[in-house]
Specification:
21% helix, alpha+beta, 5 strands, 2 domains
Amino acid sequence: MLLVAQRTQDFESSSAEDEITDVVKEFVNVEQAVIGEADVTFFNSNYGLAGAFKASRSGVSLQPSGDESTAFSSEYRGVSREQLLEGRGYIVRRGNPELMQVAMPISVPEGVGLQPAESLAAQPTG
């Protein structure tokens, strides 16, 4: 199972915060995947919803500035800020960071490339 919460900080201090916190804790306790996207400052707290997301000390931070390491209770070492290009960052498992690279889509100039699917389907075969 996978639980995804976008703009997680928007739930903080809302009427749904306690229920979402309970669901996140349950997912983490049974080692299911939980993704919480939020501003890095949201993860500064160890309590409430932020604390529930931080419990596993695991996650991904792309192009980190350094503040993100506190969310996973780990330190990012050995790579300079200049080496953290677009798509590069850290995957952290139980507080142990590893450098990673996410595949980036190829930029294709407008008008170059395949035809839209509707056009391809309408062409005769054979």
